[in-house]
Design brief:
This protein has helices at 13-25, 38-55, 61-69, 94-107, 123-130, 161-173, 189-205, 211-222, 228-235, 237-251, 260-267; strands at residues 5-9, 28-32, 71-74, 85-88, 113-116, 136-141, 150-155, 177-182. By secondary structure, the chain is α/β, with parallel strands linked by helices. It has 2 domains: 5-182, NAD(P)-binding Rossmann-like Domain (Rossmann fold); 190-273, N-(1-d-carboxylethyl)-l-norvaline Dehydrogenase, domain 2 (Orthogonal Bundle). The protein has an 8-stranded mixed β-sheet, sandwiched between helices. Helix 4 links the parallel strand 4 (85-88) and strand 5. The longest helix has 18 residues, at 38-55. The protein starts with a strand and ends in an 18-residue tail after the last helix. The relative contact order is 0.09. The structure holds 3-hydroxybutanoyl-coenzyme A (3HC). 3-hydroxybutanoyl-coenzyme A (3HC) is lined by residues 49, 52-53, 56, 58, 119, 142-144, 146-148, 190, 193, 225-226, 231, 235.
């Protein structure tokens, strides 16, 4: 199966997840890591993702080997050249994203479309860095990418219909549902989710109920797979705080101000699953 070539820039949780999902669909994937040291780590991370799919019976070992052969990892951003779709998935820091997007814009082939996986920064703020804003849009994936069905497609003011169509076809080819939204801080997903999570943290802070009780209410009352505190730990408390601060800065709306407890926990280094402690305790990975 040959579906074409894409590139993903950034090999964190989201970048590796996007790479895994695209490999599983038949794409050749070039994954750009930060430095030579990151190559093995990224390869292992993606292989571990495939192992989880195998453990669930969603994939065979033969298919995994075949997928891994289509993965090329490089630390030279110029290697995005030749990809039809390039997805930026570096940390949610505006200047970092702008720098990376301008390098992508310089290296990409003329017909390539460029997407950012930003979770909160407006497309309008990032678009000037790309050079040709017509081919630029937001493709907001959800963690864990190989499992989650949604891709929030963010149309910037200058995004062309052709770029939107290519991104939609790419998402649906991966078995995902693409939902188009207008450009706005936090888009639709995080302006809903972060207020929900923040309110749960505030209820905990005010002693309205305990952590298990709050999460049980969402799990049994709303059929959510995880409660909001468990989900915040899963996303990363630092990521939640950063998204909220970013939306708050862009809108000035107090409902997006991160709860004091969240800010304090991040300050103490309690970042959720990745640090071993958040609202719950976790075994080191
Ligand atoms: N490829 C890779 N990993 C896979 C996989 C696959 N095909 N299938 C399953 N997995 C992973 C699961 O993620 C899980 O990982 P973990 O060990 O890190 O928890 C593990 O394999 C076990 O999978 P199961 O399906 O058996 O586990 P569960 O039934 O407990 O489901 C879950 C895990 C899918 C994470 C589920 O709890 C869930 O859907 N939670 C909610 C997730 C969610 O809301 N995500 C969105 C977050 S918001 C976001 O990403 C936007 C950002 O901007 C903040």
């Amino acid at each position: 199966m040959m579906a074409g070539r894409i590139a993903v820039v950034g090999a964190g949780t989201m970048g590796c997840g996007i790479a895994q999902a695209a490999l599983g669909t038949g794409y050749e994937v070039t994954l750009i890591v930060h430095s030579e040291k990151g190559v093995n780590e990224a390869r292992e991370r993606i292989a571990t993702g495939f192992e989880k799919a195998i453990a669930k019976g969603a994939m065979t070992s033969e298919k995994k080997e075949e997928c891994m052969k289509r993965l090329k990892i490089s630390w030279d951003i110029k290697d995005v050249n030749g990809a039809e779709i390039i997805i930026e998935a570096v940390p949610e820091e505006p200047n970092t994203k702008k720098d990376v997007l301008s390098s992508i814009g310089r290296s990409a082939g003329q017909n390539a479309i460029i997407a950012t996986n930003t979770s909160s920064i407006s497309i309008a703020a990032l678009s000037p860095s790309v050079g040709n804003p017509g081919r630029f849009l937001g493709m907001h994936f959800f963690n864990p990418v190989p499992v989650m069905k949604l891709v929030e497609l963010v149309r910037g003011k200058e995004t062309s219909d052709a770029a939107m169509d290519i991104a939609k076809a790419f998402a649906s080819g991966m078995g995902k549902v693409a939902v188009e939204v207008k450009d706005s801080p936090g888009f639709v997903s995080n302006r809903i989710l972060m207020v929900f999570i923040n309110e749960a943290i505030t209820a905990l802070e005010e002693g309205i109920s305990g952590r298990e009780a709050i999460d049980t209410i969402a799990k049994l009352g709303f059929n959510h797979p995880m409660g909001p505190l468990e989900l915040a730990d899963y996303i990363g408390l630092d990521v939640c705080r950063d998204i909220m601060e970013s939306i708050y800065e862009q809108t000035g709306d107090a409902k997006f101000k991160p709860a004091k407890l969240l800010v304090d926990m991040v300050g103490m280094g309690n970042l959720g699953r990745k640090s071993g402690k958040g609202f719950y305790e976790y075994k080191p990975r």
